[in-house]
Design brief:
By secondary structure, this protein is mainly alpha-helical. The protein has helices spanning 2-13, 20-38, 57-68, 102-115, 120-128, 131-143, 165-178, 185-198, 200-209; strands at 18-19, 48-50, 53-55, 72-78, 84-90. Strands 1-5-4 form a 3-stranded antiparallel β-sheet. It has a two-stranded antiparallel sheet with strand order 2-3. The radius of gyration is 18 Å and the shape is globular. The two termini are 28 Å apart. 27% of the residues are buried.
């Protein structure tokens, strides 16, 4: 049921239809950042290295089930390469049974706010920049082969959510330093996520004022 809720959230709250590959990467990135904050997974998914990045068949299967139940719409079309592609949109209906908890929504909304306007390549590059995927890519470059099917080790990460004032000040200093010198992609995204968490109360009040 956790995966159902996550897919419904991403599809319902996206500002455009969500392609299958992009949806897959959203779920992977959610699990990645969720694990960094809580040191546990929201779903029981294990992602594998695939030709187009992290992959898990359960995401496709669950989306198909949601389509059969009338919760989402699935649109199949022929892509540039003459093969079938799929995208998803939310079917206006009651979705009370698919609401995320507050801490899950915090991470999921970060993913959408960060990548919601990015194209396919931008989302894919973001997923490839995470340490678990980057480690595999480095091994592939070193060994001259692709490790398709390898289970992605989500422990290749570090805590990036900050919860106290000193930590937030340090993160702000790192972000300022990022603007004047190049740093790692991981630290940059860590600071983005820290900023997102710091302003979560402001966003929540603004959203409530719109209703």
């Amino acid at each position: 049921m956790e995966l159902n809720k996550l897919l419904v959230y991403f599809i319902k709250n996206s500002n455009k239809t969500v392609g299958r590959t992009i949806l897959m990467k959203y779920v992977y990135l959610f699990e990645y950042y969720y694990y960094q904050k809580y040191r546990q997974h929201f779903t029981d998914l294990s992602f594998e290295r695939y030709k187009f990045g992290p992959n898990q068949q359960s995401v496709v299967d669950t989306a198909s089930l949601l389509e059969m139940q009338g919760i989402i719409n699935m649109h199949a079309y022929e892509n540039y390469y003459g093969k079938n592609s799929y995208d998803y949109s939310f079917n206006a209906c009651e979705s009370e049974d698919y609401l995320l908890g507050e801490k899950e929504e915090e991470v999921a909304s970060f993913i959408l706010d960060t990548l919601g306007n990015d194209n396919y390549r931008g989302v894919l590059d973001f997923a490839y920049s995470t340490p678990p995927m980057r480690e595999i890519i480095e091994e592939e470059n070193r060994d001259g082969c692709q490790y398709y099917g390898r289970v992605i080790d989500m422990s290749k990460t570090k805590t990036i959510f900050k919860s106290n004032r000193n930590s937030r000040l340090e993160a702000r200093k790192r972000l300022e330093a990022k603007q004047t010198q190049s740093g790692s992609d991981q630290e940059y995204y860590a600071n983005l996520l820290d900023q997102y968490e710091r302003y979560s109360d402001t966003r929540r009040r603004a959203n409530n004022a719109n209703f």
